[in-house]
Amino acid sequence: MPSSKFAIEDRNRYATGLNSYHESEAIAGALPKAQNLPQKHHLGLYPERISGSSFTAKRAVNKQTFMWRVLPSAAQSSWTQVPDHPLNQNFHTDLSFLPDQLSWKPFKIETDCNFIDGLRLIGGAGDATIKNGVAYYSFSCGVDMDEQTAFYSADGDWLIVPQIGALDIQTELGMLRVRPREICVVPRGIRFRVTLPSGQTRGYVIETFSGHFDVPELGIIGSLGLANLRDFEIPCAAFTDTDAVTTLLVKMAGKVSRASLKGSAFNAVAWHGTYYPFKYDLGKFMTMGSTLYDHQDPSIFTVLTCPSDKPDHPAVDFIYIGPRWLVMEDTLHVPYFHRNTMSEFAAVISGGFDTSPMPEELIGMCMLHNGMSTHGMSAPVIEHSMNKEIKPEKIPDDHVAVLVESCYPIGLTEWARKLGEPDVGGDEENDFGGYKRVFDASLALKGRMQ
């Protein structure tokens, strides 16, 4: 499947190629030639730079973009805190770290909320003030953000995963349309606004405090595979020319503040650089897998990763569990039982999770298995998989799920903890899920002696 089929068309223009240098102008000639800082721009634009890394970071990871704006971002008021915003959280006091395996039914869509007001923190870990940690949110909304409102996170990159409904994301560098089976990343500090071209929406946001999302290294896979760089799409310059005052919201250190901005937050007429938002169609993922026996690790399905301060332990591995062929011989095709040092947060986008179909009312559900907590398939699924005839089997095209692995244990908010339901086999009353004992020690020993 070279790409996904979408219910709504995307007519925006994009550049392609992640980690490349890009330049774009909404008016021909708006980009200065041969220098960034002419004494006076010939169109009367103001130069402004946004840095996603230190100036001296190695070239491969240096993230810098120059913009030329109708008015500079400095044309703003002072900030005031928004005391009762749902995004206000203190990770040190507001989260409960539990070994429970929990799942959540699809969250109710808040039809009277916009994208920002409809965000709810599920859980997280770490501390944004030292750029170390993650946060997982659900979002649901039914109305557009106000035309004169913009938001940005100073705490981290946002990976946005719609499950129902499309998002039009207006950013400082241009427009993105993001539909179910697509994802997008809005980097730390980039201002944006969300409208709803197809009505009500629901989905998830993964925020990482410790760095930037990037594709994983390919190693012995070679130069092609997984999420290919050419398939990432970057917006082209588009600007709003207005003198109306804009309300600007920021999340910094887990607290939301508000300021007023002269003109639009989206008044960049031209830009060039290496720091930008992007989107990706999961249907273009080039899947790798076992072709003879046993399972490969799910890390082989990693679309994007973000490092932590611990070598070889990512803050986030964002993994796509989608259509593919299972052709392994004499192999249990469903996922095996597992206890992982990484926490695992999963969500069903459509159809089902891996080989298992989902009832319609559970599509959109999510689940969390914290570090070293056991997870695996139910007893009926395991028994069926152990006894069925093994033959090539394709996971259906509509089975799309995502998995987020993190080196951090994930603490839950009170809201999430109260809504969560146990996602384990059961207890003594129902025989701990009904897993059957098949092993007979006496027969095994008798077989060894023979």
TrEMBL record:
CDD domains tied to this protein: cupin_HGO_N
Record domain Homogentisate 1,2-dioxygenase C-terminal: where: 284-419
Keyword presence, Oxidoreductase: yes
Cofactor(s) essential for the protein: Fe cation
Domain Homogentisate 1,2-dioxygenase N-terminal: 13-282
A family per Pfam: HgmA_C
Domain of life where this protein originates: Eukaryota
EC number of this enzyme: 1.13.11.5
Class of the enzyme per the UniProt entry, highest EC level: oxidoreductase
InterPro entries with a match to the protein in the record: HgmA_C, HgmA_N, Homogentis_dOase, RmlC-like_jellyroll, RmlC_Cupin_sf
Keywords, comma-separated and alphabetical: Dioxygenase, Iron, Metal-binding, Oxidoreductase
The protein's annotated pathway: Amino-acid degradation; L-phenylalanine degradation; acetoacetate and fumarate from L-phenylalanine: step 4/6
Keyword Nucleus annotated: no
Entry-linked SUPFAM superfamilies: RmlC-like cupins
Entry similarity comment: Belongs to the homogentisate dioxygenase family.
Protein name (Swiss-Prot/TrEMBL): homogentisate 1,2-dioxygenase
